[in-house]
Design a protein that fits this description.
alpha/beta, Rossmann fold, Hect, E3 ligase catalytic domain fold, 5-stranded mixed sheet, 3-stranded mixed sheet, 17 strands, 47% helix, DNA_bind_recomb_sf, DNA_bind_recombinase_dom
Length: 511
């Protein structure tokens, strides 16, 4: 078909795995190779040549196999579904996706239903044309098979590298640095930390004690965005890389319903290369640490007694972590945030005081609702007002759409030139979008208020029942269940130098 001109278009840019390999190769050779910049320049030149209007450019910073892994194409397809453009400009069809037939079918249907064509430097694909679905399907299958071949080649390369004693993980293990040949060497700045962890465990310290020591020394965790935790310590203790060995292929990741699920593989399928690099710890220290590891960890009883009535409900306002139930030196039950981020700015509080405040907050919800019921004439529902506003906005939208239609008449009559038409149309279209957004928001608010009023009628009696039942039971588990039936979560805050009851709670009920 003839190449169209003057279309409203989106540009979609995405790196392939081959592009990433080329960029890495160029970087290793001291050069530079920016795939997205090169493709952007080529597509903008094409748009200029064919007089297309570029409304938005979507750049995918990840090379995901499936749509669910690529947020930019999801955002673009939502706009395409809303008939935002006439065409999508891409370098090749496979830039839109090399996923399974479900993904490619979704892309095709979205383009077909919105009558949006695909424009590349070499071809035009119109999803409404005869045979387009077959062409799209064949090209997608070819792209998919190419992807499988690339993936197999990369996996084969990783297996060979692991057999040669090279590190093929995304980043080197904590305590090591990796050279250009993928060989590991102890990191002078962090290798001593690994050894210290093994030594502390070997000397009988538990993971909590190790974590406390690391935090006290100000040592950053492998995941610098988070604090040290027990899982990180466990993973390090079980990683034979610190003995100088490379072990690869313990787990296999399979995608199910858009999520990756790990599957443990038998040891005879692992790829192993002993003495591949310089160890950080000795075999003797490894054995001592593993002999000691877990001895002081108490076994969890299947029917352990719950002691915290706010378990799973109370969270720190500052860091978002769960508030911990514990006893102080005097034997008083306290709520405390144990995150190092909150040290010095978040004080603890007596469990009994926090528990009483939660119940008072629930009683306050009931009192406020009943007071509003008594003064309903003074405090009417906002729904009628919002419905009236919705009617006004709908009328405004009708007027704006008529204005938009009149613009075309003025253009045909020669009163407006194209530039003036585009300027005036943009103003009207922007107003239409704003009014439509306000209409959607009003509809959501009305629906929310209606649902909220319905829930309140049922919810307030439920809160009353919970408060009454709470006072008549000593079973902490039942108390916890009662609170969870009416509350989503509670945010806790107590600043330094405040009275013992000078804490603040924000409760989030199920309304």
């Amino acid at each position: 078909m003839d190449r169209p001109i003057g279309l409203d278009c989106f540009i979609y840019l995405r790196k392939s795995r081959k592009d990433i390999e080329e960029e890495r190769k160029a970087l290793n050779e001291g050069g530079s190779y920016d795939t997205l910049e090169r493709h952007r320049r080529q597509l903008l030149e094409l748009a200029k040549k064919e007089h297309h209007n570029i409304l938005e450019i979507f750049e995918e910073v990840v090379s995901g196999e499936h749509i669910i892994d690529r947020p930019e194409i999801q955002r673009m397809l939502r706009k395409v579904e809303a008939n935002a453009v006439d065409a999508v400009l891409v370098m090749d069809l496979d830039r839109l996706g090399r996923g399974d037939m479900f993904d490619m079918g979704y892309i095709f249907r979205t383009l077909q239903y919105s009558e949006t064509i695909i424009v590349t430097p070499t071809e035009i694909i119109n999803p409404l044309a005869e045979g387009a679905e077959l062409l799209f399907g064949v090209k997608s299958i070819i792209s998919r098979e190419e992807l499988k071949a690339i993936t197999k080649r990369m996996q084969r390369g990783r297996r060979v590298s692991a057999q040669e004693g090279k590190s093929v993980t995304r980043k080197p293990p904590f305590g090591y640095i990796r050279d250009e040949n993928l060989k590991l060497h102890p990191d002078p700045e962090t290798s001593w930390v690994v050894k210290k962890i093994f030594e502390m465990i070997a000397d009988g310290h538990g993971r909590s004690s190790v974590i406390h020591e690391l935090r006290k020394l100000g040592i950053k965790s492998p995941d610098k965005a988070r604090e040290w935790n027990a899982v990180q310590i466990r993973n390090m203790l079980n990683n034979e890389v610190y003995l100088g060995h490379i072990v690869w292929g313990k787990m296999k990741w399979v995608k199910r319903s858009g999520k990756y699920i790990s599957k443990a593989l038998p040891s005879d399928q692992w790829i192993r290369r002993d003495n591949a690099h310089e160890p950080i710890i000795s075999q003797e220290l490894w054995e001592r640490a593993h002999a000691s590891y877990g001895k002081k960890t108490p076994k969890t009883r299947k029917k352990s007694k719950l002691v915290n009535p706010l378990a799973g409900l109370l969270y720190c306002r500052y860091c978002g972590y769960a508030i911990v139930y514990s006893s102080d030196k005097k034997g008083c039950d306290m709520y405390k945030c144990k995150s190092s981020h909150c040290k010095g700015k978040q004080r603890s509080a007596l469990v009994s005081l926090v528990e009483q405040r939660v119940l008072k907050s629930l009683e306050q919800i009931v009192s406020e609702f009943e007071a509003n019921e008594e003064h309903q004439i003074k405090q009417p529902s906002t729904i009628p007002m919002k419905k009236k506003a919705l009617t006004t906005k709908n009328s405004e939208l009708v007027v704006l759409n008529k204005q938009k239609d009149n613009l075309h008449d003025l253009l045909e009559q020669g009163i407006y030139d194209v530039t003036t038409f585009k300027e005036r149309q943009k103003i009207v279209v922007d107003k239409i979008k704003t009014v439509q957004l306000e209409i959607d928001e009003l509809k959501q608010e009305i629906e929310y208020e209606q649902e909220k009023e319905k829930k309140q009628v049922k919810f307030i009696p439920k809160i009353k029942t919970v408060i009454e039942a709470y006072h008549f039971t000593d079973d902490v588990r039942k108390k916890n269940q009662l609170l969870k039936s009416v509350l989503k979560k509670i945010l806790y805050e107590r600043k330094p130098k405040t009275k013992r009851d000078g804490f603040a709670l924000e409760i989030f009920p199920h309304i």
